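Figure-free illustration: sequence to structure, shown twice.
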Amino acid sequence: MGVILTSYFKVKGYKIPRVLLGTSPFIGAGQFGERAYLYQLMFYNKPEKIRDLMISVFEMGVRGVQLLPYHWVVSGLELALKSYDDIVIVGSILPGEVNESLERLKDLNAVAVLLHGAISDTLNESIIKYLLTKLKILFPLTGIVTHTPGRTIPWFIEKNFEFDLVLAPLNVAGIFMDIPPEKAIDLYKNVGKPIIGKKILAGGRLNPEEALTFASQSKCLDGVALGVASLEEAKETFKIALKLFNF
């Protein structure tokens, strides 16, 4: 069987891949527990390693990256883009590097840029309004990331902020979520905006096939962002994801 290329959903005429490569492992994010430090050793300031893994994932049919624009991750992506020029970038602006994030994502021609969860989840109305307005000027699509969907998403809806996408957690175990998965599914179905799922594998704690089957069968996600730290993880994870999110 040949390579299964990712399918897309459209927002305001722009195509977003349903399966995105997440970049949290490349920064050694805390959700990976004991492996976080190992990932830092593997990837920090090693853009060539990031490039090699990205290219392997692109070869499998993935055509999108959910980018945390730390400088070494951006460098790795820029190297990978020399081999693949059709990659859609959905970025997040970093809370401690807002201006740097905007510059890097603009240089990469990011299609969508989202407020990092560390910004969205503060519910700081003035800062959020200012940043969303700025993003709307600079990028085709804007959105929010949240780690606490049960609290944050209703607040954004109540405030009637204008944005296009939501990146939010969903997994069968309810790990890294502030509401049970069943309630999250109901919430996501009623947001009225495309939802990209994250934390699908709960930081590597869940079996990929079971986790991705649950995410697909929830019928509330338009796509998923999945981080991997090795070629073996990538082969297992993206083979399943590209098959299940092919609609």
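We now fold a second protein in the same way, so the two outputs can be compared directly.
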Amino acid sequence: MTLLRESRIYQLFLALVSVYEASALHRILAGLGCWCTRQIDESTVLRLLCREGAVAQAWDGSVLCRLLTALINFPAWLLHRLYRTLQATFDSSVFSRFAFTTGEETAVAQSWLIMLLWIIPYSHWNNAYSLMGFSLLLVLFHAGAMRRESFRLDVAAVGFYPLVLFASAFLGLVFSYAPALSQRFLFFHISAALCVLVTVSAVRHTEDLKRLAAGGGVCVLVSSLYGVYQRIQGVEVNRSYVDLKVNAGMPGRVESFFDNPNTFAEILILLLPLVLALFLCSNHLAGKLAAGSVFVVGMAALGMTYSRASWVGMACAMAVMVFLWRPRLIPLFAALCVLCIPFLPSSIWNRILTIGNMSDSSTVNRLPTLLAALEMIRSRPIRGIGLGAVVPKTYAADWNLYHANFPYVHSHNFYLEVWLQTGLLGILSFVSALLWGIKRAAHIVRHCAPSAARTITCAAAAAICGAMVCGLADYLWHYPRVMVIFWFVFAMALAGAKLCRQEAAEKANDQT
């Protein structure tokens, strides 16, 4: 590291930074940034974004929240009573002490779990891995809760709307058009619910949050390196993914080990903001170089997927990240985006120009699926069709709602798909949960001091925003592993907001 600091490149970089800070360009951009910050702070949009609704304000102290907290923590209460009764026996056991200590570090175990789970190739993947993995983490959490009375599942931090959404998944099975086909899809929602509950409850310190973000970064690194390797080796153009008439000369789309380029891109837009947060909050040059390198490789792999919806989603995520993290940098961010346009590869630029092109078969072919989805929603708007992509496909075939030469997969719209699968309660709670999570993160980051927890919270909220934009043109939960990653990032935003609130309270106590 000393050699790097003494190198000519590093000295040149410092000289350029010094020249820029003394330049008129820096003063202009700084002035524009301060103006943007003032406009944002005084804007109606920000007040609406950061305002907590009546339900969110009342949730923590509500009878329902206290009741659910008591019920879900009843096993931990029993285990703690057992420990207090036989404390001498447990404390004298090496195995017990090891289990207690490991359980109290559940967040560390989770970081290793996601490193291992999310780099398993699609050909060897089984959706039961997620359920088993997070069930084991829940057991491990209770091992820590057995000794520490304060180590409890945090239902209050999960929030009201996510709980309603997970409840709607059970109703989706009860009212399913084909309950037998929906049963296994319920377990995917249970895996996601366990992921949120364990993540929000296990994160106690900023280091826990950074470890979990680093676990996601390992997934980005391994999958992106393999995606780059695919590009170097050459990827055959798949005609089902690309209209060669509109996208003439475009190379094959990399998919890493996720079976589908769109799936790979969706995972990247969810996890790349967390990698960027690690770069921003790292205090060591080695950490910045590692996180920065992973981010660059991941962005390159995202470009190689040629997934247009994910590109738009990633652009939105980066814009929201800047908006939440440092609003005064918005002019600089906009200028950099414009300056990057001439350096885009021609294949990527041509792909961008096909967005909304009705001559593109991939755009035209989505119309029959959208019409079929709307017809299914019209026929069962309240109770929905049932969980899983198989049930809508069966319903559309039985009632002759889909007319096209290619198979029905899903509606290619996140919101329509959630509605037709879980009904009106599902879509309302889904949108409410996401907006509540984003508003909660935005509210706390505007009222706390700069910290690693604040940066990661901004990144997680930005990633969810990017996924919501991407969901306008694709259904992100078609692959259950993406569903778990989606809810993991959502839980990171909630856990980060909880830590930021704790830091603000501790600072206020120190001042008094």
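Summary for the second example: The radius of gyration is 24 Å.
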